[in-house]
Amino acid sequence: MAGPLSFWRIVPIPFAAWVAALERWQLTARDGDLRLGHSVLRGPARHDPHFRTCRIEVRLAPGPLRPPVRMQLHIDHWSATAIAIELIPCQRVNPTGAYFRAGRALLDDLTCALRAHTPVPRLAGVPLRQPGADHAEPRTAALPRPAAEPVIPALREA
Q1: pTM higher than the cut 0.70
Q2: Which site in 4, 22, 43, 142 is 20 to 30 Å from 134, CA atoms measured?
Q3: SS3 assignment for 25-46
Q4: Extents of the domains making up the chain
Q5: pLDDT-flagged residues of the chain (< 50)
Q6: Dihedral (C-alpha) 56, 62, 64, 69: value to the nearest 10 degrees?
């Protein structure tokens, strides 16, 4: 259950895309671990397809001289186009500024990595734009040039 020492976020990525990205990472990561900054997501992830949830162990690194904090990352189906991610501590935590910065940074890094590795969903009925295929550069209407400033003859003192 979430508490004041947990971190959570709604991410506009479909649950299936998240699971696919996680499986790709686990296949390419050394020993099933994924490093994000100084923190580590430790595989394998546990999937529950019935409830559309996923859990993965995390070692949050609050700083170079502090021991990692054992945490659990919960990924839940939020809507057809979004997931809810929640980072929950599994041990007593010293709520320092470094702890909160590390937790927010981990969710930021994870969100950016997910967006970078997730294809953008197409809207039904909207064709993909092909570069150079019947797409002319927008034309700008020829605006009339401003008239030259009227020349006012210098006044002569008489």
Answers
A1: no
A2: 142
A3: HHHHCHHHEEEECCEEEEEEEE
A4: 7-116
A5: 123, 126, 128-156, 158
A6: -50
